Amino acid sequence: MTQGNHFPAKPPPSLPMHAYTYLPFPQVKSQPAVVVDSFHPNGLVLSHWREAPTPPELREDTSAGMVLRALKQNYPALQQYRYVTANHFDIDALVGVWALLNPALALEHEETLRQMAIIGDFRELDLAAPFAETALKLVCWMNAEEKARFYPPFGAEDLEENEVIASIPKFHYFLEAFEEVLLNPALFQQVWESEYNQVLEGYAQVYGPESKIIQNPTLGLVVVQTSAPVHYYALFSPTSGYDIVVSCYPENRYEVECKYTTWVDLESRPTLPRPDLRLVARMLNALEMSGLTWVADGVTDTGPLLRLQAGKLSKAQRYGNPQEREFYSSTIEQDAFLQILTNYLHNTFSGAVPKKRWTWAEAKAFNLRNNKI
How far is CA 230 from each of CA 265, 271, 307, rounded to the nearest angstrom? Predict the structure, then answer.
C-alpha cells in the first residue's frame, strides 16, 4: 500500500488469449460455442432474447452490448470456447459475433458498436449521442450491402432455405468486410450515402415545425404526427424509453407498432407487458367504412403492426421502412382513432406494474386475463 491510502491503478484486464472462429449455427449441436443473439443449450448464451439464460452480470439491452461487456470483464467463461455463432443475421448479431473475433479492435470502437446495435435493433437514432453519426453510416452500409449482395432483412421466407442456413453466407462476407469500413467509413460513402441522407431528411421532418410528437409515459406510447412516412431510424428517434409507436399521416392514415423492446429482455428499464392489438383491430373494423380491413399481428411477433390493409403484407414488407409500404385512408377520424386506442391501452394496463423480464407465459396470461385474444 502506498502512503495516503492511494492504491496503484489496476491494469486493464487482458483479452482472451485465443482466437475465436465463426461457427455456422447448425454445427453448434456438436461443437460448443458462444451463442450470440440466439439461444442454444450447447454454449455460453449472450442474448437479449426473452428468457435467454444470459449470465445476470452480463445483461444489457443489446446482445452486442453483452459481448462487449464480457470482453471488458475478461469474463472467465469466454476461455472455455473457441467458436462463436448466431442463428440469424442482423446488425446486433453481426456486431456481437465480430467483436469476439476482433476483441481489441471492438473495445477500441466500443461506443460506435454499441450505437450500431441500438440503431439496428431498436431503430432508436439519437444524433446527439456520441458516435451516432458514424454508427448510422456503418448501419446504412450494412443495409445497402445486404440488399445488394444477398436478400433483404426478413426476406428468407421468400427463399427455399430458412434464415438459419441462408444467413451463413452473410456472416462470412460481413465478418471479412466490416473491419475496413469501420476504420475508413468515408471510403464507402457511395454505398451508405443514399440511405444515410434519407434518414437525415426524415429526422429533420420528424423534428420539424410541421410534425408533432406526443409522449405518454403512463402507456409507454409515443404518437408521431407527420406529413408523410419516413425511415424507421427517423420515425423511432423520439421513442427511446417507450414501447408503442403510433404514426399519424394526413388523410386519416395510421399505423401502430409494438417495438422490439417488448420482445426482448431489456436491462436498462422495466416495461409494461406487450398488449395484444388484435382486439383493437376488431373494434376498428366495426367502425371502418372504407371496405378495407384493420389487421394486427399477435403478441409474439417481433414487431406487431396494427394497420389498415387491402391485402396481406410479407414479413419483409412489414419490417421494411414505412415509406416502402402503402398506407390507406380510414373513414375513422384521427381523434376517434387515438381515443379508441388509448382507451383500450388504459383498460388493458389497469393495475399492471412495469417490470423487467416478462416471460412469454406471463405476457399471454396477462392478455387472456384482460379478456384479450
Answer: 27, 26, 16
253 three-class SS? strand
Which has the closest alpha carbon to 29: 41, 21, 38? 41
What cell was used for 152? 433483404
Contact 243, 304 (CB under 8 A): no
Between CA 305 and CA 310 the distance in angstroms is 15
Tell me the backbone φ, ψ of residue 213, rounded to 5 degrees: -115, 120
Interhelix angle for 132-149 vs 168-183, to 10°?
140
DSSP reduced 3-state for 52: coil
Burial class (CB in 10 A: 0-12, 13-18, 19+), 353: exposed
Q: What is the pTM of this model?
A: 0.92
Contacts of residue 140, defined as CB under 8 A and 6 or more positions apart, other chains included, come to 191, 192, 193, 194, 195, 196, 199
pLDDT tens, position by position, 109-131 = 999 999 999 999 999 999 999 99
3-state secondary structure of 85: strand
Q: What is the pLDDT of residues 47-87, one digit of tens each?
A: 999 999 999 999 999 999 999 999 999 999 999 999 999 99
What cell does 315 get?
414479413
User: 136-152: per-residue pLDDT in tens?
Assistant: 999 999 999 999 999 87
Rounded distance between C-alpha atoms, residue 36 and residue 84, angstroms? 7
* Amino acid at the residue 363: A
- Whether 91 contacts 140, CB under 8 Å: no
Cβ–Cβ under 8 Å, residues 95 and 87: no
Which residues lie below 8 Å from residue 222, measured CB to CB, with a gap of 6+? Answer: 213, 214, 215, 216, 238, 239, 242, 244, 245, 246
Q: 75: which 3 cell numbers?
A: 469474463
Cα 94 to the center of its chain, rounded Å:
13
Question: Do residues 231 and 206 touch, judged by C-beta distance below 8 A?
Answer: no
Instruction: Write down the residue that cell numbers 454508427 correspond to.
Output: 135
Give the angle 11-15-21 at the CA atoms, nearest 5°: 175
Residues 6+ apart with CB under 8 A from 367: 273, 275, 276, 299, 348, 373
